[in-house]
Predict the 3D structure of the following.
Amino acid sequence: MNKLILWLGFSIVFSYPMKEACAQSDQLKPRFPPADNAFYQDQLGYALKIYDRFEGEQAGIYNGRGYTPYIHRITGHPYAVSEDWKRGEIFYGGRLYRQVLLRYDIARNEVLVQAYDSPILIVLQNEQIDYFAFPGYRFVRLGADSISGLPAGFYHTTYDGKIKTLVRMTKEIREHISEMTVKREFIAGNYFYIGKDGVYYPADSKAAVLKILAGRKGMLKKYLKQQKIRFRDDPGLAIAKIAEYYDKISRQ
C-alpha cells in the first residue's frame, strides 16, 4: 500500500504537460521539466511530504541517541534564541527535511529533533548536518579545514554576499555561591566574523570591521552616521549592514 501511494506521489511530479514534452516533429520526445518550473517544484514538494509521512519513524533524521537533560537547576536555558521548538528545515545525511521541529543546544553544540510521534528528544550527528534554519536564523556547519581562520562548529549566517558575515553563538554554565548555595546560570556570548577573499577575520569592534574593509573606510563611516547605526547597540546587525553596503558600493 505504501509503495502504491509513493508511486502516485512521485508520478504527479513528472506529469508535466505533454505539450512541453513534444518536439516540432510529430513524434513525442518525453523529457523532465526544468528545475525552476513552478509546477514541478510544487509537485516535488508534495511528493516529498507524502514520502516523509509514510517513511515516518524510519526516516534517517530520527536515528540518533537520546538527549540527556541537565541534572542541575540552572537559570536560563541552553538553546539558540529561545527554549521553544522552532519549525524549520535541515539538510541532514545528504537530504533536505522540511517542516521539522528543531532546537539548537548551544552549550553542548547539539541539534535536537523530537522523535516521530513520540516525546523523546533525539540528538543528531553534527557531521551529517550541512545546515539548518528556522524563521530569522540560518546555521551552517563549517569543518576545521573548510574555511581559513575559523574553528569547526555551527555559525549563524547574517549576510551572504561577496563579503560574508557569521556569528558563533556560545553559552556556558557559570557557577557562584549565594547564601551558602551553589547557583548556576547560562551565560550567552557571541563571536563575530567577516569573510573576505576566502579568509575570515574576527570583527569584535567597529574599528576592526573598518580595518578589514579598509578600502572603503571613509564611505562606510559616512554610511553608519547617515543610517544612525550604532555598533554597540547591535553588533551583529551593524556588521551585516556594513558588509551589505560594502558589496553595493564595490559594484559601482
In short: The chain has five helices and eleven strands. The two ends are 59 Å apart (CA to CA). Residues 60-202 form one domain.
